Automatic annotation (TrEMBL):
<comment type="pathway">
    <text>Cofactor biosynthesis; 7,8-dihydroneopterin triphosphate biosynthesis; 7,8-dihydroneopterin triphosphate from GTP: step 1/1.</text>
</comment>
<protein>
    <recommendedName>
        <fullName>GTP cyclohydrolase FolE2</fullName>
        <ecNumber>3.5.4.16</ecNumber>
    </recommendedName>
</protein>
<feature type="site" description="May be catalytically important">
    <location>
        <position position="147"/>
    </location>
</feature>
<dbReference type="Pfam" id="PF02649">
    <property type="entry name" value="GCHY-1"/>
</dbReference>
<dbReference type="GO" id="GO:0003934">
    <property type="term" value="F:GTP cyclohydrolase I activity"/>
</dbReference>
<dbReference type="InterPro" id="IPR022838">
    <property type="entry name" value="GTP_cyclohydrolase_FolE2"/>
</dbReference>
<keyword id="KW-0378">Hydrolase</keyword>
<dbReference type="InterPro" id="IPR003801">
    <property type="entry name" value="GTP_cyclohydrolase_FolE2/MptA"/>
</dbReference>
<comment type="similarity">
    <text>Belongs to the GTP cyclohydrolase IV family.</text>
</comment>
<dbReference type="GO" id="GO:0046654">
    <property type="term" value="P:tetrahydrofolate biosynthetic process"/>
</dbReference>
<comment type="function">
    <text>Converts GTP to 7,8-dihydroneopterin triphosphate.</text>
</comment>
Length: 259
């Protein structure tokens, strides 16, 4: 039986579209892990191509077919290859992917040394069109900050809070997610941990007290380290503090292209 291909028919409004595709597709993937080589996780994937004015719609099934061709191994080293394949399969001029996934690292408590898994939200944003490629890798890192102003004016203590640092980078050859995580954590008042015993709590509390940071300080310190990194060509950094004594959050942002 021959079934009519409605997508390939001409639309009533012959207007080209920049992006059509699938969003929110959950898919098991293998990503690169600096210590173990490969880490298994589950990504939420958005895939798009452009659509010429002569076509009514795109072929949604072909997006999933391309993902299946890569056998769940999708990471920063082969994501452009995936987009080239998608572009060819859908006869498009451009292809795009947005991939968001939890990334886990084993992290030891600072005093007891007890290890536990810490979750970070990572992402890969990539595009390919007319032999031009763009690849952005990033991660969202939870941190702790202690307010320098509160410490200065208070007799007993200083307010502190959890926050998050989001780093996005373009780079020359390759960069590990672990590098970006380390840069974010060492730029705040203290890292945060999933498991702490009492000696660890004492250390983290006192370390943060001796290392007060405004949200502006965090962003500037991250930016300094990224400017010094030989692989990075462009970056953006944003930090948001979930304030413990205010009814609003504190925020700072910077974006730079390295010459």
């Amino acid at each position: 039986m021959k079934l009519e291909d409605i997508q390939s028919l001409a639309p009533e409004n012959k207007i080209p579209l920049d992006k059509v595709g699938i969003k929110g597709f959950k898919y098991p993937v293998k990503v690169l892990d600096r210590e173990k080589g490969i880490q298994h996780t589950v990504a939420e994937i958005n895939l798009y191509v452009d659509l010429p004015a002569r076509f009514k719609g795109t072929h949604m099934s072909r997006f999933i077919e391309v993902l299946n061709e890569f056998g769940r191994e999708i990471h920063m080293k082969n994501v452009i290859k995936l987009l080239k394949r998608l572009k060819k399969k859908l006869s498009s001029r451009s292809a795009h992917i947005e991939m968001y996934f939890p990334y886990f690292l084993e992290k030891k408590a600072p005093v007891s040394g007890i290890a536990s898994l810490m979750e970070y939200q990572a992402f890969i944003l990539a595009s390919y069109s007319q032999k031009k490629k763009d690849l952005i890798v990033g991660v969202e890192v939870p941190v702790m900050t202690l307010c320098p102003c509160s410490k200065s004016i208070s007799k007993y203590s200083a307010h502190n809070q959890r926050g998050k640092v989001t780093i996005k980078v373009r780079f020359k050859n390759f960069i590990w997610l672990e590098e970006l995580i380390e840069i974010a954590e060492t730029s705040a008042s203290s890292p945060v941990y999933s498991l702490l015993k009492r000696p660890d709590e004492k250390f983290v509390t006192e370390h943060a007290y001796e290392n007060p940071k405004f949200v502006e300080d965090v962003v500037r310190e991250v930016a300094r380290k990224l400017l010094e990194h030989p692989e990075i060509t462009w970056f953006s950094v944003e930090a948001e503090n979930f304030e413990s004594i205010h009814a609003h959050n504190a925020y700072a942002f910077i974006e730079r292209t390295k010459s």
